[in-house]
Specification:
- The chain is of the alpha+beta class.
- The chain has 25 helices and 25 strands.
- The strands form five sheets. Strands 3-4-9-6-8-7 form a six-stranded mixed β-barrel. Strands 18, 19, 20, 21, 22 and 23 form a six-stranded mixed sheet that branches. Strands 15-24-14-25 form a four-stranded antiparallel sheet.
- α5 runs antiparallel to α11, α5 packs across α13 and α11 runs parallel beside α21.
- The N terminus is likely disordered.
Length: 867
């Protein structure tokens, strides 16, 4: 092999030659003065000094020595790790778990929160809105039509403004009918976002003037039209109305609301109806959100609330990302903190491994000191070794992260993680991994490096040096205490979230979900234009379902409990009696037999019957809390109430019954105050187009779902069915996010517990090895096995109690960040704190078993002879 000739080789050879010449001249001069050749040569070398040090100083003067040193230190670190494969494997795998979990969580956070939105200059896109609480009808940021028109006309600090509203449409005529999420948008929305269709065009103003144009998403294009290039101009039937496709959006574009189809709309003011709409603005260059907020406030001002005369919804300007990301940001930050704790525990374990291994290298370090190595050189070598371990762990951690990302995305409930397609291991993840490896390598290696390279190491060259063991033992114990404390913090957080989830599961709903089956229909207004057509469909559908095998009873409701939507509003009492401030009622419309089918308790009066139709007196049934608040101490049966803001004579309803309160909107909220009306007495299609059919099954409700779908298609083959399944599974889907949070924190906590157990075991096992001579002497002078076990367990007791105490103190401060995730659970719940502390103490004792058994088997003769 031909070796390339380097200029550095010439300089090194010249340096060697110059050193030899200096020593030769000094030797010759001493020989001339009468010294023997051997004595003269030895004296000349002593006088010249440390040849290796002189070479090193000279190379530094040449420049570029840092790279040479790094290469040498890395090679030496590699050889050192190769001589200790057990240590290397344990350290790498321990760190790989922490680094892998951290990189996986970073990839999720990066894909959802950090990666720029796929729009032009996304940082200039904002939402102009009111600060609306989630409990209102439309939790998404927005403003009503009149305010949007005023803002669009008078805003001067924005380049453009557009509006969007969410709606759902039924796609039919090309394959099986299905329900799609759509968006009705002002024609300028795509221009505001700075996006262009992959095929065709965007909307123009004429499209909003009663046209039939629609734009479809890439997924729908491939699913229904096979990705045909000539799709533009083809018809598509939505809600029974024929439309024309004018464009196809690029892959992965589904903004807003995860829409699959977009239709144009012209915003007009309707004095009888107002609707909250999302308003998106592109700020002009150099305009800040604060300036934009001042302009929005000046144009539309605050909006009164139903919670009192002094309450107001104030305008706000927030980044567009907040609409895309939603509330998941808070959970991601909490999960990121949990993963960081796992990484810290892994680093503490690795640092302990380095400290324990350093004891076996005392002689090596002492020899290097005796040969002239300064402390910085030794520290640099130890840090190089720890960093090499970290980077090797990073390579393994990337495989862990890849699997972790897939697991995170797959475990998340559908729709919980926005921008899920953007979550993957990419170049940013590789760069983050390198940074984490560098920081952790230096971080967990620094304390051991400073500890094992301190002064007074000369005694170790003779194999002694027990004096240093105590301080290293204290440092190792400190790392274990930190691991226990960190694990306790994580376990406490997970315990609180799990306890909160169990509280959610145990909420009294006010009805009996087993064995109910429910399905929901959204009837297209184009085919079901009036109440008569809808009532006919409902009657036929209920008759078909009621006669299915295994059905005990069946009923219908327009807004079923925990269905994700409800109608809620104010009401009126006769004689100008004023209802309690802020009191709003949910207003389900039901068919006869609904309460019996749902298992809702009838407290007073009667249920609705078939005679309660459009020809009879208008009636209502109220829930228990409504009766107690409006008619305390009196029977509500026979009282009058109206759901109209300006009731006429025909709008008054006679209360005929009282039923138990039901959780209508969310299990996180209290049971709703409700006023039920017979569906047969409702004649407004808006309150009838959305309907749920519930059936109580005699046996397994799962087998009934297919039959119920067939019952719908027997009446209308183009009517899709959604939310079909057992009521228990549908309820479980409403608490899927808390379940995901509990599972994820539990996984991170178990990782932390596992790492902490390894750390405790490692320190105790090494302590037994280190104290073999002491244990041997104790046994030799008569110590029993119980006394030896007590000695080992006593050390565990001290470490565990110290770690648990520190963890409790820190947890009392940190668990408050979980308050928004908790339900009927205090962040300082004593039961959770106590159980977690007991669990960690038990794990610490279990980790003591093997070291304690080893200690009882120490042979004093062998221990003393080895010593």
């Amino acid at each position: 092999m031909i070796r390339r000739h380097e200029p550095r080789d010439d300089r090194a050879a010249a340096l060697d030659e110059e050193i030899r010449a200096h020593i030769a001249m000094a030797t010759a001069d001493r020989i001339a003065r009468g010294e023997s050749p051997d004595d003269a040569a030895a004296a000349a070398r002593r006088e010249f000094g440390n040849i290796g040090h002189i070479k090193e100083v000279t190379r530094e003067a040449w420049g570029g020595m840092w790279f040479e040193r790094l290469r040498q230190d890395t090679r030496y670190a590699w050889r050192t790790l190769a001589r200790a494969p057990g240590f290397a494997a344990v350290a790498i795998l321990t760190l790989a778990l922490g680094i892998g979990a951290t990189v996986a969580m970073f990839s999720v956070v990066n894909g959802i929160l950090l990666r720029p939105l796929p729009f032009k200059d996304p940082n200039r896109l904002v939402l102009a809105s009111y600060g609306l609480p989630r409990s209102l009808f439309a939790p998404k940021p927005g403003m009503v039509e009149s305010q949007y028109l005023a803002y669009a006309e008078h805003a001067k600090l924005v380049e453009s403004v557009a509006s969007a509203g969410e709606h759902h449409v039924t796609l039919s005529g090309s394959g099986e009918a299905t329900r799609l999420t759509g968006a009705d948008v002002t024609p300028g929305l795509f221009g505001v976002l700075g996006v262009h269709p992959a095929i065709g065009r965007t909307f123009v103003d004429d499209d909003a003037e009663g046209g039939d144009a629609v734009i479809i998403g890439d997924g729908l294009w491939h699913e229904r039209f096979g990705g045909a290039a000539n799709v533009v101009g083809k018809p598509i039937t939505l809600d029974g109305v024929r439309h024309t496709i004018v464009g196809v959006m690029p892959p992965a574009f589904n903004f807003p609301f995860n829409a699959k189809v977009w239709s144009p709309i012209k915003i007009v003011i309707n004095p009888h109806e107002s609707r909250l709409r999302t308003v998106i603005a592109r700020l002009a260059p150099n305009v800040t959100p604060r300036q934009a907020l001042a302009e929005v406030t000046a144009i539309i001002g605050p909006m009164p609330t139903p919670f009192g005369q002094n309450a107001r919804f104030n305008p706000e300007v927030i980044p567009l990302r907040d609409l895309v990301v939603g509330d998941i940001k808070r959970s991601l930050y909490i999960f990121g903190g949990a993963v960081f704790f796992v990484l810290l525990i892994a680093c503490a374990n690795a640092a302990n491994l380095l400290l324990m291994r350093a004891t076996t290298r005392r002689h090596e370090i002492a020899v290097r000191v005796a040969l002239g190595a300064d402390r910085w050189r030794l520290i640099r070598q130890v840090l190089t070794e720890s960093t090499l371990v970290a980077f090797l762990a990073g390579i393994v951690g990337l495989a862990v992260a890849s699997a972790g990302v897939r697991a995170l995305v797959s475990l998340a409930p559908p729709g919980l993680l926005p921008r899920a397609d953007d979550v993957h291991i990419d170049l940013a993840a590789f760069a983050f991994t390198a940074a984490v490896c560098l920081v952790t390598g230096i971080g967990f290696g620094l304390a051991p490096a400073l500890q094992i390279t301190r002064k007074n190491l000369g005694s170790n060259i003779s194999g002694t040096g027990r004096a240093i063991a105590g301080s290293r033992g204290a440092l190792r114990a400190g790392f274990v205490v930190a691991e226990i404390a960190l694990a306790l913090i994580l376990l406490t957080g997970a315990g609180l979230v799990i306890r909160s989830f169990l509280q959610l599961r145990s909420v009294e709903l006010g009805f009996q979900p087993k064995p109910l089956v429910a399905m929901t229909l959204d009837l297209p207004a184009a085919r079901y234009k009036d109440a008569t057509a809808i009532h006919q469909l409902q009657d036929r559908l209920l008759e078909n379902v009621a006669h299915l095998p295994g059905v005990i009873s069946a009923a219908a409701v327009n807004w079923r409990p925990l269905g994700g939507a409800l109608v809620k509003g104010d009401f009126k009492l006769p004689n100008e009696v004023r209802p309690p401030d802020g009191m709003n009622l949910s207003k389900p419309a039901i068919t006869p037999g609904y309460f019996a089918t749902m298992g809702i308790r009838l407290i007073a009066g009667r249920e609705f019957t078939k005679d309660d139709d459009a020809r009879s007196t208008n009636v209502a049934i109220v829930s228990k809390s409504v009766a107690e608040k409006l008619w305390p101490g009196r029977s509500p049966v026979g009282q009058l109430i109206s759901s109209s803001s300006k009731p006429t004579a025909k709008d008054w309803l006679t209360v005929v019954g009282v039923v138990d309160d039901v959780v209508q909107g969310s299990v996180r909220e209290q049971r709703d105050e409700a006023m039920y009306q017979p569906i047969a007495q409702i004649n407004e299609p808006f309150f009838l187009n959305h309907i749920s059919v519930v059936a109580r099954a005699a046996n397994d409700p799962g087998s009934l779902a297919t039959s119920m779908r067939d019952a719908v298609h027997a009446i209308d083959i183009d009517q899709p069915v959604q939310s079909l399944g057992s009521m228990t599974s549908l309820i479980s889907s409403t608490i899927a996010e808390p379940l995901f949070q509990a599972r994820l924190l539990a996984v991170f906590s178990l990782c932390a517990l596992f790492l902490a157990a390894i750390g405790i075991y490692g320190v105790l096992a090494y302590a037994v090895t280190e104290r073999t001579r002491e244990i041997g002497i104790r046994v030799a002078v008569g110590a029993s096995s119980t006394a030896v076990v007590r000695m080992v367990v006593g050390r565990t007791f001290v470490l565990a109690i110290a770690g648990i105490a520190v963890g409790w103190i820190v947890s009392l401060e940190l668990t408050h960040v979980l308050s928004s995730l908790l339900f009927h659970t205090k962040p300082t719940d004593p039961a959770t704190f106590g159980l977690v502390g007991a669990l960690l103490f038990l794990v610490a004792l279990v980790a003591t078993i093997i070291p304690a058994r080893r200690a009882t088997r120490v042979d004093p003769l062998i221990a003393l002879r080895n010593e």
